[in-house]
Amino acid sequence: MQPELIDHHAEVRARIIRMANQIATFFASKPHDAGVAGVAQHINDFWEPRMRAQLLEIVAEGDAALSAPLGAPALSAPLGAPALSALVRDAAPLVRRPAR
Amino acid sequence: MGLIHDIDYGTPVSSGTTLVTLTIDGREIMVPEGTSVMRASMEAGIQVPKLCATDMVDAFGSCRLCLVEIEGRAGTPASCTTPVAQGMVVHTQTGKLKDIRRGVMELYISDHPLDCLTCAANGDCELQDMAGAVGLRDVRYGYEGDNHVRTRDSSGGLNARYMPKDESNPYFTYDPSKCIVCSRCVRACEDVQGTFALTIEGRGFGSRVSPGMHESFLGSECVSCGACVQACPTATLTEKSVIAIGQPEHSVVTTCAYCGVGCSFKAEMRGQELVRMVPWKDGKANRGHSCVKGRFAYGYASHADRILSPMVRASIHEPWREVTWDEAIAHTASEFRRIQAKHGKQSIGGITSSRCTNEETYLVQKLIRAGFGNNNVDTCARVCHSPTGYGLKQTFGTSAGTQDFDSVEHTDVVILIGANPTDGHPVFASRLKKRLRKGAKLIVIDPRRIDLVRTPHIEAAYHLPLPPGTNVAVLTALAHVIVTEGLMDEKFIRERCDWSEFEGWAEFVSRPENSPEALGMLTGVKPADMRGAARLFATGGNGAIYYGLGVTEHSQGSTTVMAIANLAMATGNIGRKGVGVNPLRGQNNVQGACDMGSFPHELPGYRHVSDDATRETFEKLWGVALDNEPGLRIPNMLDAAVEGTFKGIYIQGEDILQSDPNTRHVAAGLEAMECVVVHDLFLNETANYAHVFLPGSTFLEKDGTFTNAERRINRVRRVMSPKNGFADWEITQKLAQAMGQGWAYTHPSQIMDEIALTTPSFAGVSYALLEQKGSVQWPCNEKAPEGTPIMHMDGFVRGKGQFIITEYVATDERTGPRFPLLLTTGRILSQYNVGAQTRRTANVAWHGEDRLEIHPHDAEQRGVKDGDWVKLASRAGETSLRATITDRVAPGVVYTTFHHPDTQANVITTDHSDWATNCPEYKVTAVQVSPSNGPSRWQEDYNRFANDSRRILAAE
Predict the structure, then answer these.
(1) Which pLDDT does position A66 carry in this prediction?
(2) Tally of domains in chain B
(3) What is the mean pLDDT of residues B20-49?
(4) Contacts of B317 in chain A (CB under 8 A)
(5) Are both B596 and B625 inside the same structural domain?
(6) Which one in B46, B141, B409, B924 has a CA-CA gap of 20 to 30 Å to B839?
(7) Are residues B560 and B600 in the same domain?
(8) Mean pLDDT of B769-783
(9) CATH number of B638's domain
């Protein structure tokens, strides 16, 4: 049995974004600061370092894209690809950086 | 050792509180009001002869054997139907009574075969006992008259009254010629099981026990729970195993290894041969009842498919090679160490089993944390009740249900959501039905019209048939009604919960967009029904919520659990008998597996790995430093494997390939690993991708404990030697030793002692205590030395109960033009989970294949007829199975089970999951159904691959 060829990087990226956004959606009904803390704590409690690293990488890519000069080629995903919700971005600085 | 004999008091215990004193045969006895004279006698140690009475059912008074004389009363009343009275003087043995009883027995025996020596009930026959007890020496009527015993009458013509034996049920026979029409079986089917499959047909001498309308047992509504067989005083209903083997000579009390109800059974043995499993009357979960699985479906333990020697292979495309235990263990340890040396400490992990004992699960997580040096441990609770753990911990402070099963006897209104207990948790269902027949009200929230919506003598007050994926919307609508109509229990909330959190929640649920009218538009559930159900639950007395995987296995699984907890707190239904939040756990020890620290973020007792004090407790005892970072969950392990960072796994007793969602993704993950170790009874589907196979032992072959859905720790006792040579805990220990761990457990009780030493909620648990009390519910410690039947009695474990806002969010899995139907999955009574056990028993007589339930409207549109092969396709994959057309499912919804690997329903399910725990969304998959002419290409390929993968080299 051969698994189909899939673009793993894009798949991982989409999955991490979807999972982070799902968490943010739950905490969206809380006041903003409590929501930010809730998202960060949930990720710190349940996400292993590899996944947190993947998330932080996606956040960093997004920041780079935002601060890139006009006309520069986009670093992050192509148009229409899933994006991190604002709440996850706000929570990112509170996400524990993996040591290894 | 000998047989454990339960005392039969003849009639059920009385719930009366006033005590009454009476004299029986000169002995004074005090019993509760409402007790029968028969029961009072038995309590005084006097056994009144009886045939139609047994304490599992109400008195009936038909056999006329238990007559007594009461001073001051005329005649000879039946002791089973006569309640005691203050000062009553009873005589159970007088000349008159002796004559009557002997006459009655004479009549019975004149229509009964005299083949006692060759009868299967020889040695266990109440008719035989009673003939002895009344001193029957002669039958003056002879045996030639009208009878049910002989095929021909005295003139040689056919005897129309004779009926041949019904052997249609795979597990027991019905021999009408031996029946004395005491109707104990009929009453057991009604009172205990609640199926009403049996009746008495005809009248007078023509009366016969009949399954359904003169059908065969297998062809009738009979669910084969075994209650009738247990009730039968003669050989009329007899286990086929007893007919084949003979009467047992000793018995051992143990715990069933099927569902989370955790029934206690007596394993009745002859030497090391299991004769039969009989539900134990003193079992606190089942109170003497059983279902077809626990009672009869144990044949897998001695099935020819069981693998008894360890096996290894270099690649999954090679055949297996049998090796010694030493070689298998040494090979596994060296592979794991090699992988870690090359790919890092985090590159291996393991999965504990919810089917194994607490002690075994504890050892597997210990091996991973201490031996592997990481927290990459998970368990199948990930795919079933992980949202329960998360949701209840957030709201109440403990990751477990709040009640014991006895609690249902005090419940007035039951909300049953996302659970189908008559199939999934049959013994609990029988207890629930008993309560419902006595007047409790039922609200069913389920996409399907499950049996409990309308079944003999039971009808749900409300059925809210919501589309899969909308639980949160409906529960919030119920909360809206309770809050806006002022039906909440304000006193309870003020005293026990966080008031400001409550106010925020109350404001949220009161919003117009959360009203039944608004959410009715979204869910299609009638607003009036939602309002009615909410009012009933809030005002109908003790309200209890029971739920299953139809709640948890959704992208909003954890949110739904919180919504359930909110509803219970808002109505004050927590902390006493008859109320509470009751998750119906799937596997026998899924509660235990969670308690024992099987999750990658938690050490035993639900304590986070980042908590220094907790880690220190274990570090001191184990002599190693523990990782403070959460490890990989099952789906993360598979993702990491595909990414190339996770290379080796030790899987004890779980078949992730068949049971986990999106089979192709699971297969890709397993295929990417270098060392997959499967520790199981059979070459399961996961073993197709394994490099090492370690044969496991059954629950009959080891000592340990299981923890059921009510947090009850029950003993599992070894009744036979492990056919594979070792109990599973011994195998894990060997592997740990080979990896440098100096473990030296010689009995599982020592493992329990270590658990008690390290885990506060288990501090008081020991095998000695379990021996003494039979079972105990955690927390069991200094504060609760005898355990805790009901939690949160005087306050929540977390302090104040926390209301949490539960906003409804639609799942990403949507129907559309390509996939217009919603598939939901579930279980059936006779099969269990992936079917590895039950498919290897005669239970296949009831369910030989998975079927797709489809509404007549959807079927007609697609040209599908009942029994046709259909193709079931989703975004993840496609498979084929046969269709059953039924209006149990709503239009737009289809349903199937996942018991058979040929179907592989999980080829269809997607990798969407619960937001908090990654519990997969099994219950919602957008699909299309179309006619097909047989199994799909994928199924054929997979079968070929599976057959290839199961080759074992012949011994040299």
Answers:
(1) 57
(2) 4
(3) 96
(4) none
(5) yes
(6) B924
(7) no
(8) 95
(9) 3.40.50.740
Pairing of strands B543-547, B413-417: parallel
Work out the mean pLDDT of chain B and round it to a whole number: 94
Token couple for B422: 């008559």
Residue B281 lies in a domain: no
Q: How far is CA B244 from the centre of its chain?
A: 28
User: Residue with structure tokens 């039979």?
Assistant: B774
Query: Which is nearest to B775 in space by CA: B56, B259, B250, B282?
Result: B282
The answer to whether B549 and B416 are in contact (CB under 8 A) is no
Residues B425 and B566 both lie in one domain: yes
Q: Which domain holds residue B36?
A: 19-133
Tell whether B642 and B524 lie within a shared domain: no
Are B380 and B401 contained in the same domain? no
Q: Who's near B66: CB < 8 A, 6+ residues apart?
A: B10, B38, B48, B49, B50, B53, B78, B79, B80
CA distance B472 to chain A (A): 12
Structure tokens at B329: 């263990």
Residue B704's pLDDT band, with cuts at 50, 70 and 90, is very high
Residue where a domain terminates, one of B133, B157, B184:
B133
Quick: pLDDT tens for B239-251: 999 999 999 999 9
What pLDDT shows up at residue B382? 87
Inside any domain, residue B771: yes
Q: Tell me, what DSSP letter sits at residue B649? A: E
| Residue B827 and residue B725 share a domain | no
Residue B459 clears pLDDT 90, i.e. is over it? yes
DSSP H/E element including B894: strand B893-897
CATH number, domain with residue B62 = 3.10.20.740
Query: Within 13 Å of residue B666, how many CA atoms lie on the same side as its CB?
Result: 25
Partners of residue B823 on adjacent β-strands? B894, B925
Chain B residues close to A26, C-beta within 8 Å: 558-559, 807, 809, 915-916
- The overall longest dimension of chain A from CA atoms, in Å, is 49
What is the rounded CA–CA span in Å between residue B274 and residue B262? 19
Are B697 and B766 found together in one domain? yes
Q: Are the Cβ atoms of A45 and B630 closer than 8 angstroms?
A: yes
Whether residue B72 is found in the same domain as residue B98: yes
pLDDT(B607) > 90? yes
Decide if B136 touches A, using CB distance below 8 A: no
Residue B194 falls in which region: left (phi positive, over 0), alpha (psi -120 to 50) or beta: left
CATH code, B477: 3.40.228.10
Residue A80's pLDDT band (cuts 50, 70, 90) = low
Please give the distance of CA B894 from its chain centroid, rounded to a whole number. 24
Say if B664 is an interface residue toward chain A (CB within 8 Å). yes
Question: Does residue B500 lie within any of the structural domains?
Answer: yes
Give the best residue of B555, B629, B647, B662 to mutate against chain A (max A CB count within 10 A). B629
Whether A73 has a pLDDT exceeding 50, the answer reads no
* pLDDT for B540: 96
Q: C-alpha dihedral over B653, B377, B343, B646, to 10 degrees?
A: 70
For residue B721, what are the CA distances in angstroms to A67, B251, B451, B726? Answer: 69, 15, 40, 8
Instruction: Name the one residue in this structure whose structure tokens are 């604002």.
Output: A86
Contact A12 B639 (CB under 8 A): yes
Q: In this structure, is residue B355 part of a structural domain?
A: yes
Q: Are B902 and B934 in contact (CB under 8 A)?
A: no
User: What is the pTM for the complete model shown?
Assistant: 0.93
